[in-house]
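Notebook entry, structure prediction.
Reason for the run: the old model in the group folder had no record of what sequence produced it. Starting over properly, with the input documented here first.
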Amino acid sequence: MKFTVSGLKQDMQWRSAIGMGQGQFKILSGLFEKSYVDRYKDENKQMASERIHVENGFAGLKRFSILFDRLSLQDFVLYDVIHRVCAGLWNFYLAN
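New structure, fully documented this time:
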């Protein structure tokens, strides 16, 4: 049986659907939300800072136009070497 929170109008419907009244559910969901936000807030900040570094790395490779220009190379190993050289040059630029 599928139900939605907006479909539960009376306290009796709340109790039969989830085993607790509407007031208890709101208190419990508020506590859960607070603990969830507190727990994952720092983790989300760390992931966002790592994502910024990755996106900046892709921006640097775009400056070499290696990601979008079509190279007519039959040798994928050579293409990989060119890609690594461009990434290394960008990392060298960032380090200095």
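Summary: The CA atoms of residues 10 and 22 lie 8 Å apart.
The old model has been moved to the deprecated folder.
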